[in-house]
TrEMBL record:
Residues 417-433 have a biased composition (Polar residues). Residues 285-309, 414-442, 657-731 are annotated as: Disordered. Residues 285-303, 686-698 have a biased composition (Low complexity). The keyword Repeat applies. The lineage of its organism: Eukaryota, Viridiplantae, Chlorophyta, core chlorophytes, Chlorophyceae. Keywords: Repeat, TPR repeat. Pfam families: NatA_aux_su, TPR_8. Coiled coil: none annotated. PANTHER family: N(ALPHA)-ACETYLTRANSFERASE 15_16, ISOFORM A, N-TERMINAL ACETYLTRANSFERASE-RELATED. It comes from Tetradesmus obliquus (Green alga). This is N-acetyltransferase domain-containing protein. TPR repeats lie at residues 80-113, 447-480.
Amino acid sequence: MAQPTQPLPNKESGLFRQVVKFYESKQYKKAIKAADQILKKFPEHGETLAMKGLTFNYMEKKEEAYELVRKGLRADLKSHVCWHVYGLLYRSDNNYLEAIKCYTNALRFDKDNVQILRDLAMLQIQMRDIGGFVDTRYRLLQLRANNRNNWISFAIGHHLGGNHELCVQILSAFESTLDEVPPSEAYEHSELLAYKAQVLQEGGQPEAALTLLEQQQDKLRDKLGVMHSKAQLLLQLGRPEAAEALFRKLLVLNPDDYRVHEGLQLCLGIQPPKDGQTWQQQQQAAAAGGSSSEAARSSSSSSVWSPHSGKKRRLLQAYSEEQRGKLVALYGALGQQYPKSMACQRIPLDFLVGSDFAAAADSYVRRYLLRGIPSLFSDLKPLYADSAKAAALQQLFEGYAAALRSSGSLPGLLQPAANSSSNGPLRQQQPANGSSSSGSGEDNPLTWVLHYLAQHYDRLGDAESALRLNDEALQLAPEVIELLLARARILKHTGDMVGAAAAADAARKADTADRYTNSMAVNALFAAGQVEAAEQTAMLFTRDGDQLNNLYDMQHMWYEVRCGDAHLAAGALGKALKQYTAVAKHFADFVEDQFDFHSYCVRKMTLRSYIGLLRLEDRLQHHPFYMRAAVGAVRCYLALQDAPAAAAAATAADEASLAALSPEERKKEKLRRKKEEKRREKEAEAAAAAAATAAAEAAKQRSSSGGGAADKQKKKSSTRPPDPDPDGSKLAAAADPLAEATKYVVGLVQAAPQHLESQLAAAEVYGRKGRALLEAAAVKRARDIAGPEHPDVHRAIVRFAQRAAAAEWKQRCAKVFTRSNYFGGEQSSDTKQLLEQLADRIGAVKL
């Protein structure tokens, strides 16, 4: 422990300890009083000034806090306490880089201060300074080798840094220090062993990981997780038979787990489709190499199945004949073993073809139709990637509709003809029990058959048939909400946004207590440009008196994105930016929220979940909501950049129209405009006065309504400071809109370079800034992602070629492409050739 550079007498030293004690117990007024007693005798005591400033910081006196801490630092520049407090001040304002600098300076004067080292390690892992985090944790381990958290954190640092072998060695060394694990710590030790197996697996040692799980099976508490991990490891080791046995045990526990079904298919050598692979590409791959049994078996050894892969796959996959035969045998047995499993009935629809598919689909959909389950189309929609299956479903449901209209009952079950191939004729059975219904409305199967067919034709682009069938279904059940929502979607796809909004609002009114229908109505109203109506509808589910803040606090990002899009379409750039930046703030909050978990997860030994959290935080900006908000903000700033030119053009056009008038007519026109401006000002003043009166009346009613928890909550919400920029006018008044847009573009390109929206936004911004090389790079990446035929990519290439045609761009682009090897070799010439061809196409000058 470093000695203080400004020692105090015994009495004042006791007072200083009281200041620290009062601060830690949140008795801030007492801490200030004790600090003032010290400062009366020693007004330049740096550490007391710093502690007083830190106390002011938690009393919401930021300016006084920084002033006092800086004054204390000037008075005692070599005090580790002053530097530590200065870092705490920056940390409270989320300025982590400056806080790290302050902690580093504090350690120069007290290198073995455990508290400062812990605080520094927390900031380093928060900022993903893995090298610095490892060094700091190593120093803490040297100082406190008997602390479990120091061992675990040191191992995690090496894991995150990619040094898996050393991480395993550290965990093994820590285990060797344990004599016996008490029962109260059995779960923590189990999690430690499971984490060690995960590190071994990620470090390329699946055999060692599997051995560890088998040897320590009695100590592992997460039995289900162990079974998943062992199955995954067996697949990696090329032992699909043993993995299949584990997957079958998992199916006994939950036969509807799609992740387990995917693992079973991997055991048969059937790989899931690659991300971004189209149906046609899958068919070509299946026809080319899917018939080799040896290749299929070897593919299972290199598969990357994960028990945490998420929800069931929503992509239709192409299969070879050999793969289809294996799947038919597998799911024929599973269907008999688990007759009530929906997954065992739904998955065969992915690989069956011809009459087998029609018969299986017929058996599968009847339960939905007879029970009135409206989500049937959402379940079968992935099958529409195969046009043959879409046609078979259409024929099946058209047959249902005809039978129900004529006889009021469903036809008999379809069966493939005996000894026929999958493409052979179908045999009709007698109507099954329960297939008839004399009910009406939502109890009538015809309602749901028509509902499905309406969505089917909408999916195929036949809006006329879709609306006709939806009308027929609404005549049978006019109050069914799903039918009204389906009508809204159909109208939206036809471009009738106003009609879609009306249909969605009708669905909302049918059940005003349903939050989902309220959200769908708000969404449709925003798409129709009815912003005010959408906002009023959304506020029906918010707390009275604090609607806007309530929506922000609940982080309704879908609402903010839709609202921003509507304002952007209406030209209200400030309001649009307000919504888009709110989404960006939510994601910034998500990043800040991980701070407390750095110590909590290590203390509770939830290490696997902690690693998953860190990896999730590192890819937050891939989220569609953030992508849409960031791209929307870029569009707003680009529109603001163009606003002066547009305003100048409008002014010139207005002056030209006035110049065309006679002097008397020009005078009358100017007077009319002045009167119109005064009228608008009076209307705005009257509306503001009316709003103030209504607010006063509401406050009066709340105050007279008595106490209670609700009133306390309202009073608490009313203490929130008013928004200084409710309409986003300050955001829209940015001095350099292009610089603001560049901030978003840099983040998008760094975090999500594989997304088309990121590259298109970068191309547009860098083109406006005259950065030819960066624009060309963005255009090329966009072309690689979506192909040159994509309309947005084509527009970006044409815009680049048009800029290159300008005289001031010609020399700049020529210099850039001749002196720069950014693309390197063949790619450089390929890019230049592409741009030359497009430049020729639009009549531009060659580069």
